[in-house]
């Protein structure tokens, strides 16, 4: 007795340890404006960037499974640390396609760099995994990977235009530049290997020599999601946004305080977040 | 057929979200040198200082229960955030005495302050709980509670003698001083309300006006543990350290990388940590 003239929209699960992945969701919304999005921030266990491979993989697999249980047709790991340390584990556990942000980030660097020498700024865990170095090498790029453990706390403190943050950036970039010179690299591209870092883009542009391109993987990841979805499941015009309107429904889930998620998350998403559901992943 | 001429040593469980609580264990060792210590760092879920009351209470209760399962006769919550947010929950769940660091810290401030006006530096979650303000008020002290979210990351980055850390401290202290002046307080005592902060004691002394006393609760907590144990269970001379030797056996447990625990933990404990056991708290 039910008539279904409108098929279900494609469901996209987006996962991060916290809020940074909302910069990826922000890029996804205009790409696939009629999709239904499920965003999970594992805020009770953040940050991932200082933790071990085994722990990050366990956390990330649980989160991906939760998104699949909500009916996600496609999962985006919008967290560099989880993409670097746990992509294989998540793909092994999931029954739907899973995309990380490392590969798409390296691809965009390959498209942008003339010197073929790239600087990757990332968390300690991402750097230790050397996932970016491998992904860059696969595109014929040489890379310096620089861990910047203070940037996430500075951004979450809201010091995104502070002299302290400028000085911390100066120190990290100076160390990276020294390493690049010692290795004979001529950096012309900086890849932001943490979804928090786009909030420091203006400060970074100031701190870097002219002519350096700054890339983050949010945009390239969003484009790839759209391309892959088109290949695996033909999308309707509305889902692909050809009419230019955005009717995306977003559901937000967090493992810690939903109030904090609303407040901090809106800064990353660039629009207000109203309802957030508290989830228990058993941690 | 068994003869037991030497009774079991008293077993003391010490718990923190990470490494900072090792400064409390460090103070306990000479106080009760023949005790057997069980130290648990919930490193897979740190930091607690930015998380909600419900999440911190859940984590801390699980950790206390684990220590009790190892036979702890007494549990020390060597973490200001867990003491501030979860002491009642832990006491309700535990079957042995439980001591936090807030009350002992406030006591030492009450003994030291002439003006009766105290500055408490702590994590965001500890400040939001106002546990120190209540504990200080119970001793007739007025207090300013200042959240310092960047200090733990700076200490864990190892920047304990960096101009950046000096500048961050200057900003935090200037904000606190402005708040104290507006409230008409004459601060003469600074209470370190986070077990990481003792590593910044030298920098703090430099940044503060002369004549300000800096206190941390490690020493006063260790003394209180000894006093309470003497009241509830008469200790033998060796356990009380009257012979001046330290034969304490320490067992270390962590929920994330044991290698990182050994490396970072030794800095807080002030002596090498050899064996650390990986524990799964289900998180």
Give a short overview:
The structure is a homodimer of 283-residue chains. By secondary structure, the first copy, chain A, is of the alpha/beta class.
How is this structure best described in words?
The structure is a homodimer of 283-residue chains. Chain A is α/β, with parallel strands linked by helices and 283 residues long. Chain A has two domains: 11-100 and 219-278, 3-Layer(aba) Sandwich (Rossmann fold), CATH 3.40.50.1860; 103-217, Rossmann fold (3-Layer(aba) Sandwich), CATH 3.40.50. The first copy, chain A, has twelve helices and ten strands. In chain A, strands 4-3-1-2-9-10 form a six-stranded parallel beta sheet, with helices on both faces. In chain A, strands 6-5-7-8 form a four-stranded parallel beta sheet, sandwiched between helices. In chain A, β3 (74-77), α3 (80-93) and β4 (98-100) form a beta-alpha-beta unit. In chain A, α1 (22-31) crosses α10, α2 (53-69) packs across α3 (80-93) and α4 crosses α10. The longest helix of chain A is centred in the middle third of the chain and has 20 residues, at 163-182. Chain A is globular, with a radius of gyration of 19 Å. The termini of chain A are far apart. The model of chain A has no long low-confidence stretch (mean pLDDT 92). At the A-B interface, α7 and α8 of A face α7 and α8 of B.
Give a short account of the largest sheet of chain A: 6 strands, parallel
Mean pLDDT of chain A: 92
CATH architecture of the largest domain in chain A: 3-Layer(aba) Sandwich
Instruction: Give the CA-based shape of chain A.
Output: globular
Count of DSSP E strands of chain A?
10
* Structural class estimated from helices and strands of chain A: alpha/beta
Greatest chain-chain interface? Answer: A-B, 25 and 25 residues
Q: Helix coverage percent of residues of chain A?
A: 40-55%
Order of helices and strands of chain A: EHEHEHEHEHHEHHEHEHHEHE
Query: For the record, what CATH class of the largest domain in chain A applies?
Result: Alpha Beta
Q: Give the low-confidence spans of chain A.
A: none
Please state the CA-atom Rg of chain A, rounded to the nearest Å. 19 Å
């Amino acid at each position: 007795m039910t008539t279904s003239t409108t098929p279900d929209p494609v469901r996209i699960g987006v996962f991060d340890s916290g809020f940074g992945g909302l910069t990826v969701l922000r890029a996804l919304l205009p790409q696939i404006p009629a999709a239904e999005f499920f965003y999970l921030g594992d805020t009770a266990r953040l940050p991932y960037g200082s933790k071990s491979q085994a722990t990050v993989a366990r956390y990330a697999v649980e989160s991906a499974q939760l998104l699949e249980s909500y009916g996600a047709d496609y999962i985006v790991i919008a967290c560099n640390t989880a993409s670097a340390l746990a992509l294989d584990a998540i793909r092994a556990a999931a029954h739907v396609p899973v995309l990380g942000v490392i590969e798409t980030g390296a691809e965009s660097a390959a498209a942008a760099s003339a010197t073929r020498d790239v600087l990757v700024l990332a968390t300690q865990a991402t750097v230790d995994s050397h996932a970016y170095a491998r992904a860059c090498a696969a595109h014929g790029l040489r890379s310096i990977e620089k861990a910047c453990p203070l940037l996430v706390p500075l951004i979450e403190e809201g010091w995104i235009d502070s002299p302290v943050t400028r000085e911390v950036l100066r120190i990290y970039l100076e160390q990276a530049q020294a390493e690049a010179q010692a290795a004979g690299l001529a950096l012309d591209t900086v890849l932001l290997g943490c979804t928090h870092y786009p909030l420091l883009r203006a400060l970074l542009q100031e701190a870097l020599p002219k002519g350096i391109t700054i890339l983050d993987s949010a945009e390239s990841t969003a484009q790839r999601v759209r391309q892959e979805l088109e290949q695996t499941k033909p999308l309707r015009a509305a889902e692909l946004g050809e009419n230019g309107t955005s009717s995306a429904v977003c559901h937000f889930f967090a493992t810690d305080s939903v109030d904090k998620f609303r407040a901090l998350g809106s800064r990353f998403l660039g629009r207000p977040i109203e309802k957030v559901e508290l989830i228990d992943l058993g941690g």
